């Protein structure tokens, strides 16, 4: 998993409440177990018209936001079914940070396991960040995980809370497998000891 330390990028405003995982990645794209290739189908039903052409009104189709790496979203982002494909699709598209007032628990947890930083802010802070994100090409935010700060284009700063363990995992690029591999020397020592004590096992 890629390390997340700091990010300076364009933030796309998505003031939609209750964006569920089927909106993030519709069910017809869940046939794969690969983490790559899903970005092209991110927000499919909002990004594309029935004839397959782009919906010019959708934020990520607008020139200023096509390469946005941050989404500033409405309340309860990631609700609905517990599909891990949702953070996979976001990451494959290039989104590595989502800011909202609240997230669905399973989606929130899945983000950390896939290198995405979900940040919870107050409604007042979200209003300020949504305003920053509405500036088009100038909608640049800096997210500093180490200092737990979001810095806006005008120099305003918002601090955010994050669980220390999850912060450690993101900053060091550790998913569940990576965490296990950190314990590899202890695992090897235990197995050697077990082999000596119970060679029949």
User: Which secondary-structure class do the elements indicate?
Assistant: alpha/beta
Distance between the termini: 34 Å
Number of helices: 8
* Percent of residues in helices: 25-40%
Number of domains: 1
Largest sheet: 7 strands, mixed
CATH homologous superfamily heading = Aconitase, domain 4
The radius of gyration over CA amounts to 19 Å
- Strands of the widest sheet, in order across it, are 4-3-2-1-5-6-7
The CATH topology name reads Aconitase, domain 4
| Secondary structure tally: strands | 7
Shape: globular
Mean pLDDT: 93
Low-confidence stretches: none
Order of helical and strand elements = EHHEHEHEHEEEHHH
The CATH class name reads Alpha Beta
Q: Report the portion of residues in β strands.
A: 15-25%
Architecture (CATH level 2) name: Alpha-Beta Barrel
Keywords:
201 residues, globular, Aconitase, domain 4, 16% strand, alpha/beta
Q: Your description of this structure?
A:
It is a single chain. This protein has 201 residues and is of the alpha/beta class. It has one domain (6-173): Alpha-Beta Barrel (Aconitase, domain 4). It is 33% helix and 16% strand. The chain contains 8 helices and 7 strands. Strand 5 (140-144) and strand 6 (149-151) form a beta hairpin. 31% of the residues are buried. The model has no long low-confidence stretch (mean pLDDT 93).
Summarize the structure.
By secondary structure, this protein is of the alpha/beta class. It is built from eight helices and seven strands.
